[in-house]
Design brief:
By secondary structure, the protein is α/β, with parallel strands linked by helices. A five-stranded parallel sheet has the order 3-2-1-4-5, with helices on both faces. The longest helix has 30 residues. 31% of the residues are buried.
């Protein structure tokens, strides 16, 4: 891309849900087709043992190691689809807060890609949160990938 038009950065929130792979696949395909990049955000939620400092520190270290391993696997899996190595963000806190902070801090992020859950619990806590009042504070659009799509259907759409 030219100096005046930096590449689009498609941000995907990586979590424990099965559908986050659909959002990641969609974002990787869109990045490849538009000369963009994929960014991955994984938020490590704080543990419940904060009054036992040593236990919590060990648990936090284990969560961080697991997050780094997950991100490495996803980068290896989706870099060939996207055409470049994803940008990785690992943060600790509440997912909603960390997502909003990252979007505010990183001007390069241009689109948020989320996948909707298909279970009885609804589309997921981030989608429910972001389609409420916080949506007005976002400076970027949100793409919601239906969680019931197949990879083949996503390929046809992207």
């Amino acid at each position: 891309m030219t100096e005046n038009h930096p590449p689009r950065v498609f941000l995907v929130v990586v979590d424990e849900t099965a559908e986050h792979h659909l959002a990641l696949h969609y974002a990787a395909r869109r990045a490849a087709h538009t000369g963009g990049r994929v960014a991955l955000l994984h938020v490590i939620e704080r543990g419940e043992f904060q009054h036992w400092v040593a236990v919590e520190e060990l648990a936090a270290e284990e969560r961080r190691d697991a997050a780094e391993q997950l991100m490495q696997r996803l980068c290896e899996q989706f870099a060939p689809v996207a055409g470049s190595m994803p940008i990785v963000y690992i943060r600790e806190g509440r997912p909603q807060d960390e997502l909003m902070s990252l979007i505010a801090e990183e001007e390069s992020i241009s689109i948020l890609v989320l996948a909707a859950g298909t279970g009885s619990a609804g589309p997921g806590p981030l989608i429910s949160y972001l389609t409420g009042k916080p949506a007005a504070r976002l400076r970027i659009p949100i793409t919601i990938v239906p969680g019931g799509l197949t990879v083949e259907q996503i390929d046809a759409l992207s």
